[in-house]
Every structure is written in structure tokens, then in C-alpha cells.
């Protein structure tokens, strides 16, 4: 949405814009050198035991009771698969691309998992085992949802996230507006770690403000996106499974994450100011 009427922004002005390509290339090329410089000596290096990376042997089930037979029944599994995929095909045929919302994509993945495991009991056990490695995420995100509600909840039409965004808008010029948009997006991302949720909060404020002072809509959109991605570097959800295998915690890698945050922040900020 640009201005008061819908208008598509071509990817040539966003993903494939010179500014975005230069920022991305600089981070991709430079960050490995930064990581190499941070590499600890042998005395302080923690190596993962290769034995921890070996997958457990497939579980052998004893089917003895009527309940066991129901859980492992190929007939019941087949009925579930047919019903699930029948709905998937029906929904896609009825709604076309409009059917691909987040809930429907999760639905597809769930039934794909049931299909590939070939057994309802195996799927349930695999789901339970997987949940152990991401228990931190499962616990934290309900709290994030509460924090997001506090940030986006409006009182007399004013939300806390809106106040943060509006503050940066108020002190920005045409030159500094993309930089301040990026910084405000990075701050808001600490409290609203959802890209869609963050856009819903900042988009209606930043996009019209940028246009009002002469900043291209594509550049404002990129600044919001970079800010959202930027502070994800010190919210290392992506590393939780690996940390669990290595017997480490998030605090053990936080120092490295902060350095990557600072390096990428300088690169992104420079790109937004120069281009």
C-alpha cells in the first residue's frame, strides 16, 4: 500500500535494488571474516561430540493390546490421510492462491508429516521428541504474544510501538529518515518479533511519513525489513537446536551475536545513508 491507494512496488526497487544488493553482498562477504576473527583459541573452543550427531535407531514398537493396534492401524492412518488431503485439494481448488494463509500452510505440513511417517503413533512420538528441542520457543512465544499486544494495543488511538515510530519520524530529514526507520524497526522487533506484526504496526506510520518528506516507498519498506531482520541476530532462536546438542545456552554465543549485530548494523546504516 502506497499513499491512500494500493500500488505494487516492483522487486527491482526492493530485493534487486542496487542498495539492497550492495548491503547484502557486503554482509555476506564481510561477515565470515568477522566470524573468523572472533574464533577462540583451542583452549576456549567447545567441540561437539560427534556421537551426539548420530541419529537414534528407529524405535521398535510392540503391538500387543487393542489400543496398540488402533494406534498403528494402516486403515485409520489411511482414512486420516485421505480426509486431510481431500480438504487440501478442495480448498486450493475453491480459493486458489487465497487459500495459502499461515493456518492452511501449517495444515499442509501436518498432513505431509503424517503421510511421510506412515503411522499415526510414529508421527505422535516424532512430534513429541521434536518439541523437546524447541521447548524454549514454545514457552517464550506466548509471552511474546502478550508483549506484542502491549506494544500494539492502542489507547485513544495511540500505541507504544506507534509512539516509538512517531518519535523517529519527528526528528528525521529526507536523508536520515531511512536510517531512523531502520533503527526504530530494530527496536520494535525486540518486542514484536513477527515480521507481519511489525509491518502492521510500523507500515501505516512510516510509509505515509516517508512519502510526505520525499522518501521513495521502496526505500522505506526496505528500511523496515532490514530493521526487523537486524535485531534477530541477538534473538538466536535459530541456534537453539544446535545449542541443545552442544550442551550450551544462548548466553554462550551472545557475545558473538552482538558483534555480528554491530557489524551488520554499520553496513546497513551506511547503505541506507549513501544510496
Concise summary:
The protein has helices at 18-38, 66-71, 74-95, 102-117, 120-133, 135-152, 160-170, 177-191, 195-212, 217-230, 240-246, 250-274.
Task: Provide an overview of this structure.
The structure is a single chain. It contains twelve helices and no strands. The protein has 275 residues and is mainly alpha-helical. It has a domain at 11-38 and 135-274. It is globular and about 75 Å long. The model is unreliable at 1-5 (pLDDT under 50). The two termini are 23 Å apart. Helix 8 (177-191) runs parallel beside helix 10, helix 9 (195-212) packs antiparallel against helix 10 (217-230) and helix 10 (217-230) packs antiparallel against helix 12.
Which keywords apply here?
275 residues, mainly alpha, 12 helices, 0% strand, globular
Write the layout of secondary structure elements.
Blueprint: H1 18-38, H2 66-71, H3 74-95, H4 102-117, H5 120-133, H6 135-152, H7 160-170, H8 177-191, H9 195-212, H10 217-230, H11 240-246, H12 250-274
What's the helix count? 12
Form type: globular
Helix and strand composition category: mainly alpha
Mean pLDDT: 83
**Strand element count:** 0
End-to-end CA span: 23 Å
Uncertain segments: 1-5
Amino acid at each position: 500500500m502506497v499513499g491512500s491507494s494500493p500500488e505494487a512496488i516492483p522487486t527491482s526497487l526492493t530485493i534487486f535494488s542496487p542498495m539492497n544488493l550492495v548491503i547484502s553482498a557486503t554482509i555476506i562477504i564481510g561477515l565470515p571474516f568477522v566470524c573468523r576473527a572472533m574464533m577462540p583459541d583451542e583452549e576456549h573452543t567447545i567441540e561437539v561430540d560427534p556421537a551426539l550427531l548420530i541419529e537414534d535407531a528407529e524405535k521398535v514398537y510392540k503391538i500387543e493390546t487393542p489400543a496398540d493396534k488402533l494406534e498403528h492401524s494402516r486403515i485409520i492412518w489411511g482414512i486420516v490421510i485421505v480426509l486431510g488431503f481431500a480438504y487440501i485439494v478442495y480448498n486450493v481448488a475453491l480459493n486458489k492462491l487465497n487459500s495459502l494463509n499461515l493456518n492452511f500452510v501449517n495444515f499442509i505440513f501436518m498432513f505431509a508429516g503424517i503421510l511421510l511417517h506412515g503411522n499415526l503413533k510414529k508421527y505422535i512420538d516424532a512430534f513429541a521428541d521434536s518439541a523437546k528441542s524447541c521447548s524454549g520457543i514454545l514457552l517464550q512465544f506466548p509471552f511474546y504474544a502478550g508483549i506484542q499486544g502491549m506494544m500494539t494495543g492502542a489507547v485513544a488511538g495511540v500505541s507504544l510501538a506507534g509512539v516509538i515510530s512517531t518519535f523517529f519520524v519527528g526528528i528525521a530529514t529526507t536523508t536520515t529518515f531511512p536510517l531512523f526507520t531502520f533503527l526504530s524497526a530494530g527496536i520494535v522487533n525486540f518486542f514484536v518479533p513477527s515480521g507481519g506484526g511489525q509491518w502492521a504496526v510500523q507500515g501505516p506510520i512510516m510509509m505515509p511519513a516517508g512519502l510526505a518528506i520525499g522518501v521513495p516507498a521502496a526505500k522505506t519498506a526496505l528500511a523496515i525489513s532490514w530493521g526487523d531482520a537486524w535485531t534477530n541476530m541477538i534473538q538466536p532462536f535459530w541456534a537453539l537446536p544446535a545449542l541443545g546438542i552442544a550442551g550450551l545456552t544462548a548466553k554462550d554465543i551472545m557475545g558473538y551475536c552482538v558483534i555480528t549485530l554491530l557489524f551488520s548494523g554499520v553496513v546497513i546504516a551506511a547503505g541506507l545513508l549513501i544510496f
